[in-house]
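User: Here's a chain of 192 residues. Predict its fold as tokens.
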Amino acid sequence: MIVGLGNPGRQYEASKHNTGFRVVDELARRWNVTVWQEKMDALVAQASVDGEKVILVKPQTFMNNSGQAVGPLMRWYKLDEPDVYVAYDDMDLPVGRIRIRKNGSDGGHNGIKSLFANGCRQFTRFRVGIGRPLPHHDVIDHVLTPFPEELQAPYDAGIQAAADAVEGCLRLGVDKGMNYYNPHKKKKTSEA
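Assistant: Prediction complete.
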């Protein structure tokens, strides 16, 4: 099950907080998924990827209550927590940078806190950087507004990279996918 976190409604469509929805939409585009249905407070679609059934999910509960859709869906489909992939925005990463992790804290993200509260903790995270707000700017304002034009290209590249990483992890497994898709630190070279 691949979950994209975001907020329903046209007014939030272009907001940074809808990063997870965008990743899921990109996967749906790649996999020619066009039929969505409403199920347990979410938009749900199915795809077949390399012969395996994959469920795409966009909770319609608003970000802070995402777990109210994800927890019940996970149990309905009888999925183990590690079989749930969650894509979402992360202010601690530069715009467009991605990071995959198998577990961890909520990092102050209310959508992730809601997943924890609804019985889903050991899922694989696909975080896409949206950067921090400028000093003296409101965090809520930052996540609920679109990117300025000059940051749109790196952000769009991050959405593509996150979709690539999800596909790669489905194919290779999460551990190999993390090695391949996570950014690598440059090794320091010693000067002679």
